[in-house]
Amino acid sequence: MNRYTDQVVLVTGGAQGLGAAMAERFAAEGAIVAIGDVNDVAAHDLADRLEKEFGRACLAHPVDVTSSEDVNAWVEAVAGTHGRVDVLVNNAGIIRDNRIEDIDDNDWHSVVDVSLSGAFFCARAVLPHMRSRSYGRIVSFSSMSWRGNFGQANYVAAKAGIVGLTRTLALETARQGITANAIAPGLIETPMLASMNAAARDKLIAKVPQRKTGQPQDIAEAAAYLCSPAAGYVSGVVLDVDGGLGIGSSIR
Fold this sequence. Notes:
single chain; alpha/beta; seven-stranded parallel β-sheet
């Protein structure tokens, strides 16, 4: 499919993991992809590979999403070069897990600033460009943890905030051809999951109705749909991509 031919797609945290999988999927469908990441070397390496592989322009910019100045400069640079911004994927995020009483101020602010404030700064920056063309897609990353999770108060607060931000974006842009949705991944094969010890990993997988982990491509597929023209009547939703984990415990 080539649903994104000549569209300009911005992906934060796009240098690795889920962000890289989405950047690759959009590039494969004809998009001009702009990768924003604090890891400038990895971002440029990926951009070079995608440009060679798919023959489409792929841009890499060093972007700290916790800085509104960085975000604004990135968005204006991309829009100035290509004349448009069609899609924003708010993927950047970090974890600093601990019990509530052991989360210090820095770990609280770091997680909330990257995941939530970063998503807000990016959405605010792209909206004028989307409104000017009466078209846009914003997908932000929540998590299955947004409903509450032991030892992740900072992360949960940020990811629950993404849900509220997404719903408000959907309402405020509903008449302007723009949609805003969120994706809540479950247990996906990423370096973060791979770093867990085997026993803890197996315990988590046992809670998934499908009894398996997801792949980064599962997330990329969901994002590619929600950001496509075909999803124009889908806005304000949180899409669980979790093998059924969000359904809750079975009585069996």
